[in-house]
User: What shape does this take?
Amino acid sequence: MATTHSELYDAIVIGAGIQGCFTSYHFAKNKRKVLLLEQFFLPHSRGSSHGQSRIIRRAYPEDFYIKMMEECYQIWAQVEKESGTKLYRQTGFLVLGRKENAEFCAVQEALSKHSVEYKYLDSKELKTCFSNFRLPPDQVGIWELSGGVLYADKALKALQDLIRQLGGVIHDGEKVAEIKPGYPVTVTTTTRTYQAKSLVITAGPWTNQLLLPLGIQLPLQTLRVNVCYWKEKVPGSFGENFPCFYGSFSDLAPHHIYGLPAGEYPGMMKVAYHHGNKADPDERDCPSASSEVTDVQILCSFVREYLPGLQPQPAIMERCMYTNSPDENFILDRHPKHANIIIGAGFSGHGFKLSPVVGKVLYELSTESTLSYDLTAFQISRF
Assistant: This one.
């Protein structure tokens, strides 16, 4: 039986992935009493925030993400300084596509509009600058200088340490069993019952499981994604001087393919497909479906064709979960019936870099502060 914890928190945050950690960090930073709950023991690899690397970039076709990224870079630098941990490596970021591709044009237009430093590279310049790529003559590039790699697992650890240092409380290995709306909101886990003025749900692929008893289901799709690592034929050829990249290769695949230079596994580049297959998050490690084999075959063809300096079969394959919204934009909003329950969800495989501002916005919604950003694009009512 769960024991009742007498303290009234300003907020309880459910889910200690990167979004939940940044939300709790903003609460603690603003001297509010916060409890961060995590169903698994930390660190773990069951959600969407594990692993060693993520891409950071300003290159987006949407204005609202480019605006947010300005502050994200500042907060990432602030957390680096406060924690004394290096969390970002600038490698540059390369967007690849055909010059008539609508999304490619939209990215270029948005970067120009917001005065983000970038360089347009025609196919000849691409070949000169990035000789490791073997690209067809109609491929062009956008080279964004400030892009690079975030050290994901180090970021989670740094934030969790800072939350505790700032007076926040983290309880891991406590799965939420019941949420009772009201003021205060009551949360019962497998071991204890807690109360808070507000609740923030950042539970990734488990979001709808928590929302079902609260009378709402979001149009979220949980996907299991294969993250593949490919061995260099010549050691060091995809290391220090190779960029992160992201591109549309419609001749090979309907979804984007992205890559990061060799890092977590020496001599291996991370190249993955920005898509996955429907899966229950509690069954993430069950045997693969045949459609997952297709995803890996697409990547094998891509590597063989476009990155001939890598072995064409993955050396290591890991699993990750995406929680996608229909438009692949985030959900950052209040519960329609319970204003003190805040939801952050649908990060659609691109939320890690934006988590400093997502956490800030969820904190603002929770404390009814003036919002720093227009959240129209992130409201539940758009569905």
The longest helix spans residues 63-83. The CA atoms of residues 25 and 163 lie 5 Å apart. The radius of gyration is 21 Å.
